[in-house]
What we know:
Blueprint: E1 3-6, E2 9-15, H1 17-34, E3 41-46, H2 50-59, E4 65-75, E5 78-87, E6 97-105, H3 109-119, E7 125-133, E8 146-150, E9 156-157, E10 173-176
Parallel strand pairs: 3-4, 3-6, 6-7, 7-8
Antiparallel strand pairs: 1-2, 2-10, 4-5, 9-10
Amino acid sequence: MEQVEVNGKTFRISIPEAEIKKRVKAVAEEISRDLEGKNPLLLGVLNGAFIFAADLMREMTIPCEISFVKLASYQGTTSTGKVTEVLGINEDLTGRDIIIVEDIVDTGLTMKRMIESLGTRNPASVSVCALLVKPDKLQVELDLKYVAFKIPNEFILGYGLDYDQAARGLKDIYTLVP
């Protein structure tokens, strides 16, 4: 499907499934090299990163564990700028190598808050692995160690990302047609 309609809005393919799979595998290989001999904890940010986190974990060649946290900052197609923790972390992070697995980093405010929060729990390291980054929208300095795609400041969905909870299951990533 070159175009889809979701909740009255039209979206066109911007990143096809094959390209997503290729980049997820490359990022997993990079993490596996960097953390060889370690057992990192992948910390997936729900809901959007669940598909990316699962695919990433399956492509990794080192042992790893996974857990999830749920944060909220979006309403419709816009970030509210206010981050709410809906589901917290139960694991002991002391001495662990943590990789935050995020679907999309746009302003960076959510990620900055999360990194700061995790830092108080004495991890060995905290890295960010983002499927998508909007460099032109970043408002804070972030060390985004693992990034699959840099994209323009456009609204997207598919591959776990939604528009009002719809279209997460699309295998490609689609961009809103203005």
